[in-house]
Specification:
about 190 residues; two-stranded antiparallel ribbon
Length: about 190
Amino acid sequence: MGTKRVFNLGAGFYHQKDGTRTSVNSQIEKHDIALYAIDAFADLPLGNAKNKMALSAYTGFYNYNFGPNYLRNLGIMNVGSNDPNFIGDKAIAGAGNLQPMIGSGNIYYLQAGLLLPSNADKPKIRIQPFAAYTNKNFKALENSSSQFDVGANWFIDGHHAKLTTQYSTRPTYTSASAEPKSKGEFILQFQIYL
């Protein structure tokens, strides 16, 4: 929370023999799972130490192989359902806020936030505006997607409680060969640490 310099580098891998399977014409093929990642995190105090202002940044590159053209679509707390009367182009991910989230291919992620100076009148409340960029390049889709997030963390009593407000874009594909379109979503989340 803006009191010390922090810099971390990370790297990791995961391998599972015959971790996934595909079935084509009743023939089952086994595929190894191989995941590799590198990342970096920095938290750097800025300005006068009494203000406890800081710049935080995280970046990561992930190379995933779950087998040929593996693609998983996820939607956080998705309440969408298919409308049988819908006549437009349907997203291949499905209804609601589903999107291609993980699969064989590469993901690049970058996030940065600025912890604003502490307020003498309300020292237990801290605000951190942030922005993020994600690029996903999955083998099952001919075109990569770019996503953007912008929001703010509202820290209450350090990390004991946090309210996050965020606007995000997410890609929608109507076919594996289509250029992705972008849809927006607003996210509100609350976290308590005891």
